[in-house]
Amino acid sequence: MADLLQAAAPSLFLLAAAILVLPQVSPGSNLGRLIGQGYRIWNFRVLNRGRRLGFRPLWSSLGRRDGFVRRKLGLRGSNAIALAHRRGLHCVADRPLPALARDGDTAIAGGDLKTVVSYGFFAIELLASLASLLLLHVLSSFRVWVLDDLRRPWLRELCAELGAGYLTRGDNLHGKAGNMNAALQQVIRLPQPPDAIAVLDADFVARPHFLRRAAALLHDPEVGVVQTPQFFFNPDPIQLNLAAQRIIPDEQRFFFDCILASKDAHGTAFSCGTSALVRVAALEAIGGFPTESVTEDLLLSIKLTGVGWRTVYLNEPLSAGLAPEGLHEYLTQRGRWCLGTMQIMRTKWGPLSAGPTPIKMRLHTLDAVLFWTVAPLFRLLALLAPIFYWWFGLVVMEADLPSILLYLGPYWISCITFLAWVSRGTNLPVLAEAMSYLTLPWHFKKASEFPSFRHADEDGRFAAARYRRGS
Predict the structure, then answer these.
(1) How is the beta sheet containing 231-232 ordered, strand by strand?
(2) Is 454 within 8 Å of 462 (Cβ atoms)?
(3) pLDDT single digits (tens) 288-306
(4) Dihedral angle at the C-alpha atoms of 420, 361, 284, 340, nearest 10 degrees?
(5) Domain segments of the chain as ranges
(6) 197, 391, 364: which is closest to 265 by C-alpha?
(7) What is the CATH number of domain 96-325?
(8) Contact predicate 205/193, CB 8 Å
């Protein structure tokens, strides 16, 4: 009993220190940076020390080098640590202050005082979205365009009544990207072509100062895209089924509040499809919205970095919309993200290609690829490990209980507490893992399409048709 208490002492000490110290320290402070760097060093050291005590991981029994596997796990499981922590996870770009300083200034690089946003360019269908756009506060001219691939007469009449533009096309090639490209070709031929376009999905509503705040960051002549976070009116399927929407943050909060903000500080932020402002000159430099992937938003930013444009992230609540309302919609959305990432791998802008993508963007894109490919394999392995032991006697870990408490205990507690602290409570590790297991079959389904899918520019109809069917 004394041996067990002695072995558990480091875990209890870490837990007590975390409870007493971390709430008093901001992850963005110098002390927070020091804690983060110390955590990284200790994290790798404790894993290496564990091997000398007889820990024999399952993948070592299967003939795999556990060092290689740990590096892969570190790249995915420590996304917010291994990538965003190059200068510390506290490293986030302070965009709101420059936006506030420029709020109301109508001159942008490449434009004049009359055309900050000549036309708002919005892909919308819902009346609430349309009403919110017509009430936007701007100091120069803008116009709302409704892009309707279903070609509905009643919507055309409604737009005419409300003073919004209405655009459609003869086919539905390339889905959303093709719809926006078709409209872009029409609006740039107008007598007063736009300097920037904003994209808002059909189920999102913009706040009145959305354009003013986002356009303020276009004063930097290198900025091609200004992305803003997504907030939601309704609970996501996980919150709804647990009846805990007031307790559990929505699934996207960790990404938008922590991950994307840290990526922005390292110059690798990317467009997220809606609630974004795009400079027309940047679009023209890459030939419009990309059609090579169903995740045209991610590929848009990757392409822009290759020709010298930057995507910046303005972390302010400037719009809100609807989260997936059911489990089927939730899984379909994740499947689309997985398929789109695999498609990007096949393009010349992929992380392993010979294209012009900068090395830092390649690393961050590779992290997304590993999330959809390598991470599900290890989750599946964790599910199969008890079965392998039961049926084949394959030992997952060889260690006595004191060794587990002494080495695995502090490691596990430090991972849980550090991630909860640095994410400011937006990431709940146990729940996040449970949600990852929920989407595991869809990860494999979409990732398995990697060898056989076609480029969207070869036949752009497959994406729109597939996702209308919900596959």
Answers:
(1) 204-206, 319-321, 231-232
(2) yes
(3) 999 999 999 999 999 999 9
(4) -70
(5) 2-91+364-452, 96-325
(6) 364
(7) 3.90.550.10
(8) no
